[in-house]
Write a structure and sequence with these properties.
Strand content: under 5%
CATH class: Mainly Alpha
Number of helices: 10
Shape: globular
CATH architecture: Up-down Bundle
Largest sheet: none
CATH superfamily: Heme oxygenase-like
CATH topology: Heme Oxygenase, Chain A
Amino acid sequence: MGNLRNIYEKQMAEFQTIAHDFNWESKEAYGNWLGQTYHFASVTTRLLALAASHFTIKQQIIHNRFIDHAKEERGHEQLILRDLQSLSLDINAIPELAETAAMYQIQFYWIQHKDPHCFFGYIVLLEGLASTFGSALLDRVETAHGKKATSFVRVHATEDIDHIDKALKSLEGLDSNLDKMISENFRISSRLYLSMLQNINIAVGGKLRQVS
């Protein structure tokens, strides 16, 4: 897991600037981010269940962990719809970006054609973002848009902060080949997420650092 941990720490440091520069105070930018998040949050439980089904009987512990994680994530996309409603925004009016679609669609490939462990690259990204930036993000969006429009962020900033530790601990002892594949999925997913943020901010007239 050494390679993934190093990449993870470097990537979170890069996200520090990107997350700070993003125009969270803009209703249009925040609403678009919620809309993009809805698109991949809607398939989270399906991906978790799919990955769980690909672990063998000998991998029962990690199979159970994915099932439990799916239960924890159930219904989170409904929180986003309520937040959008509070902003007087319609999910149907927020087109799904190519980066958003690619980010979750490639997970089916990793799970079904590589190894279900590879899905951890995606999990570590999203849980890492929530753990690292959730609290500061909640302060900003709640101040700008009110509590009724921030339920999704609040859940992930306050209730899910231990998920990244669980995810990283689950990867201890994996062989170097799996570590390499998980790290690659994390790297690709991170690039796509950064590009997603960039395109949202540009669309509403903000300025964001270029994705390297």
